[in-house]
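Q: I'm building a small set of examples for a reading group on sequence design. Run inverse folding on the following structure and report the sequence directly after it, with nothing in between.
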């Protein structure tokens, strides 16, 4: 389901529904009656009259209270509350389908910024301009003044393009020009088309339900007819004996021949880099090629923030790669930070010294499988599972207090092994963990349980022997970037802009 794009002001809302006289009259009256008339109201841009989906309108708490409790129509129309009473969905009678309004209570009333889809479609358009039209710009100002470029970016974004993304697009354009000129291409595909084809193929043929866990390409650049290319790949994969490695070999050849190029995109700074991944067919063995690591590379903050009554939920693992003159940092936090009642972790890598480029998330199922197979891995209280519902991770302060001595011992152990922390007193840390459960920022256990899950992950790693720890964190670095290694050798070939 597409995300809402909030940008419609009061006057724009009225214009949107002018053709429906009754509904228009009701909304005019509603807007005139709202107690906060200087702000506190913004609506989804992409909703249209006749749509069967609800029109989502954000309100600040003051206006939300009026709509749900005091307004002449909306508060008495039998609406339904959801999401802890933060959403109020109510119908306006209309033929043939009632108009659904979903009022949303929000502390932040601001126009939406471009999401990943708009950002990546902007990159695809920039690539087309550079490679097909030989467009080049000396600086951001020149890009903005280009009548064939900037107006189209504004259409894609649904509004003005952020300065930092303009710098990123300019940097991307330069690195793509250097890498692929003088080639010209027919298709720059992000949605549908080849993306749907290749995602469906690996799901049906190789049981890979999420394409990005195999190949993180966000855009496919195609030289000639996409339909002919799809048929060629489909034919080569027919029959019972083919493997994902054979598909990777086909894609590798297509890439080298500049017939099909998968590009993984990361937001860049003013300078972009380009790297070919899994293009040589060499599979690294992390037993022999690995990076140093110890619990001194673990870090966690436990300081309670006065503004939230909680601490930050993430923990961090830093990995130095001296053979490559690179430093990697893993932020380990909830995969869905806004989820209520708990959530599993994601392991996302950033490379320092490259504009702090995000390198990608390590597929958790692969990561857990590798960890559990390490020779020195210990299960039970010294093991790790990425399941917030596991009894190891208490859901409430009362449940935590019953096992606080166990967690105190674990934290003592980690601090003794060298884990970095803003608080060194384990009694204070335990006190803050219990306090964090009572904060609104905790989201009924999500924040604090994620912290405990991250600590348990560190506790587990601290019991691996040195060679296994080195090998495992190196595997983390490789699989987060979707680089093939002997334990995870199925990743496909792609180019990476970062």
């Amino acid at each position: 389901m597409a995300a809402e794009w909030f940008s419609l002001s009061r006057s724009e809302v009225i214009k949107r529904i002018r053709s429906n006289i009754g509904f228009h009259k009701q909304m005019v009256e509603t807007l005139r009656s709202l107690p906060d008339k200087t702000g506190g109201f913004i609506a989804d841009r992409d909703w249209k009259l006749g749509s069967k989906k609800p029109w989502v309108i954000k309100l600040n708490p003051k206006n939300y209270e009026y709509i749900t409790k005091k307004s002449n129509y909306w508060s008495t129309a039998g609406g339904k509350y959801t999401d802890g009473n933060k959403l109020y969905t109510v119908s306006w009678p209309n033929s043939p389908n009632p108009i659904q309004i979903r009022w949303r209570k929000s502390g932040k009333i601001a126009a939406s910024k471009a999401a990943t889809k708009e950002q990546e479609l902007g990159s695809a358009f920039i690539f087309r301009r550079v490679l097909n039209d030989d467009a080049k710009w000396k600086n951001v100002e020149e890009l903005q003044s280009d009548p064939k470029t900037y107006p189209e970016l504004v259409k894609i974004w649904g509004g003005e393009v952020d300065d930092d993304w303009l710098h990123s697009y300019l940097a991307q354009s330069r690195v793509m020009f250097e890498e692929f000129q003088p080639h010209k291409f027919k298709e720059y595909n992000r949605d549908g088309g080849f993306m749907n084809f290749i995602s469906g193929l690996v799901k049906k043929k190789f049981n890979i339900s999420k394409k990005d866990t195999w190949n993180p390409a966000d855009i496919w650049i195609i030289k000639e007819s996409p339909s002919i290319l799809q048929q060629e790949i489909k034919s080569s994969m027919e029959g019972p004996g083919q493997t994902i490695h054979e598909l990777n070999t086909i894609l590798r050849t297509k890439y080298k021949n500049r017939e099909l190029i998968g590009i993984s995109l990361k937001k860049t700074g003013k300078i972009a880099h380009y790297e070919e991944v899994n293009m040589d067919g060499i599979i690294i063995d992390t037993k022999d090629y690995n990076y140093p690591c110890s619990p001194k590379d673990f870090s966690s903050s436990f300081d309670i923030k006065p503004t939230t009554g909680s601490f930050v939920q993430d923990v961090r693992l830093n990995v130095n790669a001296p053979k490559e003159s690179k430093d990697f940092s893993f932020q380990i936090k909830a995969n869905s930070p806004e989820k209520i009642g708990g959530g599993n972790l994601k392991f996302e890598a950033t490379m320092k010294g490259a504009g702090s480029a995000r390198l990608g998330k390590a597929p958790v199922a692969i990561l857990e499988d590798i960890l559990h197979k390490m020779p020195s891995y210990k299960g039970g209280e010294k093991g790790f599972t990425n399941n917030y519902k596991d009894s190891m991770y208490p859901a409430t302060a009362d449940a935590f207090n019953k096992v606080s001595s166990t967690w105190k011992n674990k934290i003592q152990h980690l601090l003794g092994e060298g884990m970095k922390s803003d608080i060194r007193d384990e009694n204070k840390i335990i006190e803050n963990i219990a306090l964090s459960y009572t904060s609104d920022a905790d989201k009924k256990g999500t924040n604090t349980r994620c912290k405990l899950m991250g600590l348990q992950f560190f506790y587990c790693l601290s019991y691996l022997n040195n060679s296994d720890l080195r090998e495992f964190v190196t595997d983390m670095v490789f699989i987060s970037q979707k680089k093939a290694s002997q334990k995870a050798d199925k990743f496909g070939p792609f180019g990476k802009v970062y």
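The two ends are 28 Å apart (CA to CA).
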